[in-house]
Amino acid sequence: MHMKWSIYIFVLFFCMGPKIQSQENSFLYENNKILPAEEVFKINVSQAENKIVVEWNIKDKYYLYSDSIKINQNNNIVEYMLLKSDKYKIEDEFFGKTEVYKNFLRISLDNNEDLSNYVILYQGCAEAGFCYPVQKYFL
User: Is the dihedral of CA 98, 104, 109, 115 positive or negative?
Assistant: First the structure.
């Protein structure tokens, strides 16, 4: 009788082991998946009167470096104004104490009639430690 139970338990673990392991791997993969930058840092651009408004909706547990945000037109720096943000100071392992934006960021810039050749540059990271390369968004 003891031998039957041993064989039964062995067969049960042998058949169920791969299924349990694949479910664990699936769980780990989904939680550690690197999302595309455009999914993590969603940008919306709108025009209001004589201003262009750029807004980032930043996914939970991600952030943008405040110093990384640059706007260029024809290789010239374009000044912008901070309208609204969730700004935090963090201790970054590469940059030391630095300011970041979480959740959202809204800026505005003057609406030049020529909207061509505007490029928005930005960079951010996941709190889990993965950092994205500098991203480019073309208006």
Answer: positive
